[in-house]
Amino acid sequence: MSDSTNVEIKFDDIVAVNDFANKNSFMYVGNQLRKYRLGIPMGDPLSCAKANGTCLDAEMRCDDRRAAEQGDAERNLTLCFMDYLFMKVAYVPEAEGAGEWTEASADEYIDQIKACYPKRLVLE
After folding, report:
1. Predicted local distance difference test score (pLDDT) of residue 90
2. How would DSSP label each residue in 7-40?
3. Backbone angles phi and psi of 76, in degrees to 5
């Protein structure tokens, strides 16, 4: 896509930028400069994108399991953030099944999607 209102960023470019950032994240501890071993530093310019990517990966894996088990591969609407959980799931109020998202199937999906995210970090 190449018009003046949209910019296309290839997934491989996003992966390359994230890999570079992961390999080049440093912090000072006292007077020592240390390299991060694991995690996404808060304040890192890419932390928001990485957190959303982590959530999206978990959601897509959950959707793949649901499609394999129940056959409804249609992507629903979810919004999730690593520091708190907020999501919306759309359903058809008059639906009675037959491949449409009912209120009951939306509730079931909410339970599944809430369980798919990585466990939150706890500071001790």
Report:
1. 75
2. ----HHHHHHHHHHHHHT-EEEETTEEEE--SS-
3. -95, 175
- The Cα 103–Cα 12 span in angstroms is 37
* CA 97 remoteness from chain centre: 28
**What are 85-113's pLDDT values in tens digits?**
566 777 777 766 556 778 888 888 888 87
Q: CA 91, 107, 87, 43 torsion: positive or negative?
A: negative
pTM of the model: 0.56
Residue 5 is classified by DSSP as T
Q: 102 burial class (0-12, 13-18, 19+ CB within 10 angstroms)? A: middle
CB 84 within 8 A of CB 24: no
**What mean pLDDT is reported for the chain?**
76
